[in-house]
Amino acid sequence: MNNASPSFSELINRRNELLAPCFAQDWPNVPTERAEGVYLYDNDGKRYLDFLSGFGACNLGHNHPVVLNAAREQMERMVHAPIGVSTPESALRLAWELGKIAPGEIDMFFFGNSGGEAIDGAVKLARYVTGRPGIIAFIGGFHGRTMGATALTTSKAIYRTGHRPLLPEIYFARFPYLFRSSKKTPKECIQESLEEIDYIFEYLISPKEVAAILVEPVQGEGGYVIPPFGFLPAIQEICNQHGILLILDEVQTGFGRTGEIFAADTFNIIPDILCLAKGIANGFPLGAIAAPKELMIKWGGTSHGTTFGGNPISCAAALATIEVLQNGDILKNSRQHGEFLLNRLRRLKGKCAIVGDVRGIGLMVAVEFIQPGTSNKPNPEAVKRILQYALEAGLILYPCGHWSQTIRLIPPLIITNEQLEEGLTIFEQAVLRV
Ligand SMILES: Cc1ncc(COP(=O)(O)O)c(C=O)c1O
Q1: In this structure, are strands 134-138 and 106-112 parallel, antiparallel, or unpaired?
Q2: Which of 67, 287, 295, 328 could form a disulfide with 277, with the two C-beta atoms 3.0–4.6 Å apart?
């Protein structure tokens, strides 16, 4: 038997034997050798424009030099320092800095490793401090793959299939999705969702037994569904009225994606608990549960914990990420590039019967595809072909939505006009070809 270590190309060919199918059969599985800025490079040296930003984690682009330097400097000093046994400076400093930019009174933090973990922890926190069991989430939401987050996720039934029994005492209401609603106006669409929450309170669980309402400010995996503006403040009002905690899942929307550091600012709401991950450390694994001191302080003793969470290198990377986000034109870029994309894509809609809807906020933009001649019959086949054409032309895109009928366009926020034009042109050509 030949025990020599195989080359990268040989390993790629054996991907299906080495990686679990849920990894190996995902899209597009580029054999990436390195990444820089808005580009990925494969093992043949082919360059790809990354309009997915590493699943939305690299808002500042891959290997941002300021973030890398901060991480490198921290790595030389200390790689691992579990919080509790140690108190690493970078975690403390990160809590200090996050407290300055977080919405409302949020000033206390638990650090984990990922978004799903942050969601699980937030639910534990809400149940612990309220002594109530119920959680209300929204149809079409995506909150991660851990057991708790899976129980709260309904963007596709497949994420739940085979994993039951899931967490009990979770109830779902409709998310206002104007393009797919039978209601004609944003106001009616909001009202429909609020009535479902009333219905849950009336028939299924008293609001006195509900610990939290969990919501993504913009549904991500569920299809880049932007709720009409009055929706989130109305949810906050319901929470205030019944002593229910509002958990905002900003795992995908946070750190500049919607044009402000947090979507809470974009939508003018103040959550009780904020869940963060992805863009927080620009590619280094880190998640956070954030809440005001008066709430978090009640989560005492060893009621929650972690070995790797708040890793010193990830925290140093997060500090650098926040510094870069705050100084310079990143947020302005997010808004301006988002507007530019939306305008161009709306023109494409005018020319193309398969483009059903174009929507976006900041640089969180999506195009929903439909069967020609219908008002909104999903067209995932067209999406597959567009993704393939774009990939061949060197553009990485990723679908979302219940039927995978929508394509999200989320390039790094540092993208230049020329790079944006390059990616957009490939996308337009792919759509027109299909
Ligand atoms: C809104 C939202 N919440 C939670 C998660 C889960 O994050 P992670 O994959 O880091 O566990 C995701 C991941 O896509 C997400 O988009």
Answers
A1: unpaired
A2: 287
Q: Which residue stretches of the chain have pLDDT < 50?
A: none
> From CA 269, how far away is CA 367, in angstroms rounded?
26
Which residues partner with 358 through β-bridges? Answer: 367
Q: Which atom of ligand 1 is nearest to the CA of 278?
A: 10
Task: Provide the 8-state DSSP code for 301.
Answer: T
What is the CB-side half-sphere exposure of residue 88 using CA atoms within 13 A?
22
Read off the DSSP letter of residue 293. Answer: H
Q: Which helix (H) or strand (E) holds 124?
A: helix 115-130
Ligand 1: lining residues by beta carbon, under 6 Å: 55, 114-116, 119, 142-144, 216, 220-221, 249, 251-252, 277
Q: Which domains are delineated in the chain?
A: 8-63+329-433 (3.90.1150.10), 66-326 (3.40.640.10)
* pTM, full prediction: 0.98
Distance from C-alpha of 272 to C-alpha of 93, rounded to nearest angstrom:
22
Q: Which residues contact 197 (CB under 8 A, 6 or more apart)?
A: 136, 173, 213, 235, 238
